[in-house]
Amino acid sequence: MSAPNVLFLAIDSLRADAVFGDHIPTPNLDRYAASGAQFRQCVSTTTSTTPSFSSMLTGCYPPRHGVRGLQGYRLSTAVTTMAEAFGAAGYQTHAEVTGPLVPETGVLRGFENAVHRPGYKVKPFVWRDDVMERMSSYTEPWLMLLHTWEVHRPYRPAPDYVRRWDKGGYEAVVAMSDEWLAPVIEAAGENTIVVITGDHGEEYPDTRMGQKMHRAATKSRKKFRLDKWFPYLDKKFAGMALGHGFALWEHLVRVPLIINGPGVAPARVEDQVRHVDLFPTLLDLCGITIPGDIDGRSVKSLMSGGTLPEEPAYMEAVGVKLEGDRIAAIRTPDWKLMRYKSDRSKEVLFRLDGGLPPDEKHNVLTRHPEVAGKLGAFLDRVQAIEADPDSPLSESDEAVIEQHLRDLGYL
Ligand SMILES: [Zn+2]
After folding, report:
1. The pTM is what?
2. Ligand 1: distance of its center to the CA of 154 in Å?
């Protein structure tokens, strides 16, 4: 058979339990998971869109690829992108992206054709027919990155999905995406490796009571000027943040990862894999040489029942709400060590015990100093990497990025 095409579907803000759990109906995604390799413990590198895509598309952690926030950074020219690697191997490369992934960030470098569509204030999936039409004219073999915004806040599910699922919106937009994206995946054809993942997870109130509490907290912060009169309470309420980007809790970093297509047998992988492993794994599956000097590794052998030595996952939170502070973490299936950029003494260690159910309330650092020391040393090693000094972001590019972030409600 000729070289397979690759459809890389990244659904923004898609949590692992939204697909692998059974509280949201995702019959189509479930079908792709059941007939392909499903990675049950995949973690994203950051909880913000642009840095997260930079890691997925280069196999590198942020210190190496250089994109450490939504604005003010441009992808290092020293790293090889997925589009560059597939392009060099004779693939036609297409990107259909949205949200903050504008070309000025450098993240789309290497894509022969890149279309950026507005993510906000447009009807959900209004773009689908146009994208499918363009897909039908691709020359094989092709690589296509499809990034969707429908699961991103503010959720705007069609009314019938709201009636059928939740009023809060998240579960409705996930169910809606499952239904609306299935024809796109089908249209990719049989000789296509389909990758489905989320760029990071999401914090949303998943109970009626939770929804009410969030609404009340937001309202009272404004109405009673809590920041002025009761700063402690204000901070506490603000801490009930929704969305993503501001922390590295499990539901914010655990994402689904499904790889389906020619030569991929059904497999359920419980080992921890990382978003930085995606790029080398895809190259491996397509018989393309993996560039040196990346942080990820091919996990292809796990898809056929093999084993690999455990590799810790580095992650960082760089969201706008952190106001320049950065939370970094090292995760293994059993432990998570977190460190704040502003204050190293604020290091905390959580026991995950394989991730089910994780305990992210009790800091066990003083009880396990040897674990903290080992993970801390790994964190230091990753952070010591310095991205190649790059052509700095020009003022006009920075202005374009800022305007997009404003339109999306980030600033
Ligand atoms: Zn995102």
Report:
1. 0.92
2. 12
